[in-house]
């Protein structure tokens, strides 16, 4: 059993096959639609001038409320993935004023294929991090600005040297036909 909807290309193909003398059963099998769809197409063509394809019937339901604003919503979400549907509605009252937040969520998730994301709820600093920072501050409380400058320049030189050393020591070795990096 086939489907009963035909695209314009399929309608043209069906009409060509029928004009060549093919049977309705063969045409329906070839296009993979129901025989009733072919009969309905033949009936619709009878009232039209020769060589024209019947236009598609208008679909049911109301038009989409956000069809004009999809590009704007997509751009906003790609610029700021953490933005919520309520914030989108608040930022664009002229475009999304009569659209519900749930509709905006559906358009973003289903139609525009943008996944939902929510940041993990976690403390900015854990207790262990706070203790380490406090002990660091107590240890170096007496340092002068000159000591800090010297310490920073030494650390930068050390990090640069470690990066250079790591690049020099990354030797590629062939081992059983595969290449491995050995630090």
Computed CA radius of gyration, to the nearest angstrom: 34 Å
Q: What is the strand arrangement across the widest sheet?
A: 1-2
Multimerization status: single chain
Name the overall outline: elongated
In total, the number of domains comes to: 3
Order of secondary-structure elements: HHHHHHHHHEE
Q: Quick one: how many beta strands?
A: 2
Number of helices: 9
The CATH architecture term of the largest domain is Orthogonal Bundle
Sheet-strand content, in percent, reads 5-15%
Give the N-to-C terminal Cα separation.
64 Å
Mean pLDDT: 81
Protein model, in words:
- The protein is mainly α.
- It folds into three domains: 1-60, Orthogonal Bundle (Arc Repressor Mutant, subunit A), CATH 1.10.10; 70-111; 127-182.
- The protein has helices spanning 8-19, 24-31, 35-46, 70-79, 85-91, 93-96, 101-111, 127-139, 145-169, and strands spanning 171-175, 178-182.
- The chain has a two-stranded antiparallel sheet.
- The longest helix is centred in the C-terminal third of the chain and has 25 residues, at 145-169.
- Mean pLDDT is 81; it is low at 171-179.
Secondary-structure map:
Elements: H1 8-19, H2 24-31, H3 35-46, H4 70-79, H5 85-91, H6 93-96, H7 101-111, H8 127-139, H9 145-169, E1 171-175, E2 178-182
Antiparallel strand pairs: 1-2
Helix pairs in contact: 1-2, 2-3, 5-7
Concise account of the structure shown:
With 183 residues, this protein is mainly alpha-helical.
């Amino acid at each position: 059993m086939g489907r009963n909807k035909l695209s314009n290309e399929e309608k043209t193909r069906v009409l060509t096959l029928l004009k060549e003398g093919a049977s309705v059963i063969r045409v329906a099998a070839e296009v993979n639609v129901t025989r009733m769809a072919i009969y309905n197409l033949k009936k619709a063509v009878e009232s039209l001038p020769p060589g024209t394809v019947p236009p598609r019937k208008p679909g049911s339901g109301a038009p989409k409320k956000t069809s004009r604003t999809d590009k704007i919503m997509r751009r906003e979400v790609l610029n700021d993935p953490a933005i919520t549907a309520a914030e989108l509605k608040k930022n664009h009252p002229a475009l999304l004023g009569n659209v519900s937040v749930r509709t905006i969520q559906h358009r973003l998730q289903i139609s525009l294929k943008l996944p939902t994301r929510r940041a993990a709820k976690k403390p900015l600093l854990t207790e262990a991090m706070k203790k380490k920072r406090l002990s660091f501050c107590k240890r170096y409380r007496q340092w002068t600005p000159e000591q800090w400058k010297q310490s920073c320049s030494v650390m930068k030189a050390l990090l640069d040297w470690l990066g250079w050393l790591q690049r020099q020591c990354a030797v590629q070795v062939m081992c059983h036909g595969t290449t491995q990096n050995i630090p």
